[in-house]
Amino acid sequence: MKISVDRGLCEAHGVCMSLDPDTFDLGDDDILVIASEQQPEDKRAVLEQAVIRCPRQALSLQG
To answer: Residue 38 has what DSSP assignment?
Structure first.
């Protein structure tokens, strides 16, 4: 499955980072960085929560 961010929508509120700090982080320029777009199936539940709880709906999950 693949997680992606729409950088035009993301305002770096940090909800996704609080849910999964191994996947989401802020770069030096305060722009969201995803460690790897391809994620294992066992992370589906936490990634779905990140997508649902993103205040700007900037995250999407495919697959």
So the answer is: B
